[in-house]
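Subgroup meeting minutes
Present: P.N., E.W., G.H.
Scribe: E.W.

1. P.N. recapped why we're keeping a running log of single-chain structure predictions: easier to compare across weeks, and new members can see raw inputs and outputs side by side.
2. G.H. added today's entry (303 aa).
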Amino acid sequence: MAIVCFDIGGSFIKGAVALTPRDIAPLQPRPTPLDDFEAFAATLIAVIADSGIRPARVVLSITGVVDPETGIATVANIPCIHGRVLRRDLETRLGLDVLIANDADCFALAEAGLGAGRGHAIVLGAILGSGVGGGLVVNGRLANAAGGFAGEWGHGPILPPFAGAPPVAIPAWTCACGQTRCLNTVGGARGMERLHAEIHRIEATSRQIVEAWQAGETDAVRTVDLYVELVAAPLALAVNITGAAIVPVGGGLARSGPLIDRLDEAVRGRTLRKFDRPLVVPGMLSIEPGLAGAALLGLEAPG
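Output recorded in log:
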């Protein structure tokens, strides 16, 4: 069986032909039409034509979620698919079976099947990119197989008003989801930068902050200490609730091995189950995780 899988971003649509979970051949990326659904569907059709096959199905990894009851997609960065019953609408345009999954879910599925999560029954994939995301895989299957919000540990009014030693005030920043005090407001790269500016009144990129932290620079050490404290507690709670035995991490901040090691130590100190091995680890996949996860989802789907 062959399928065509897509990683749909706000700038580009990346496609690939997947014959097996490890045999994934990328196709030429194309710009993402943001405001015209017909152009969006036509782009998918063009990529499928480039594949040279008639796929058994098409699978999309998207930066959004699908409501499991209504099928309505919430994809804030691509207005033309936001608010649509996306699977139905695409199946009508493409004439093919379509599956859709969140990109963090695809990351979690890919790491569970091919990466750091192999051999573990419950895998919580964590994204520390520009923001915070996550996905949950149980016995090789997505908890969100039909859409949903499982694994989204970055949302909810969980942040304390004060943290750190000595304590500093944590502002009630508004999250993109509409709530305040979500971990998402401080837990990603933009959040680390926000914390650094709030504490020190200094603008710096997350990369600069992490590099300065590794060099022992005082302001950066303070920022990273606070960042780890704020992120570790919700992640430990997510591990306790899900029973995850491994937490592969993706996104830009996962590129810093020392930062992930520090976070791992802090999380393991807060979980009910005591681990004598790394729990929070960098993702292992060299294959584009959105495409790899979409390939796994499509190849292992029944029918």
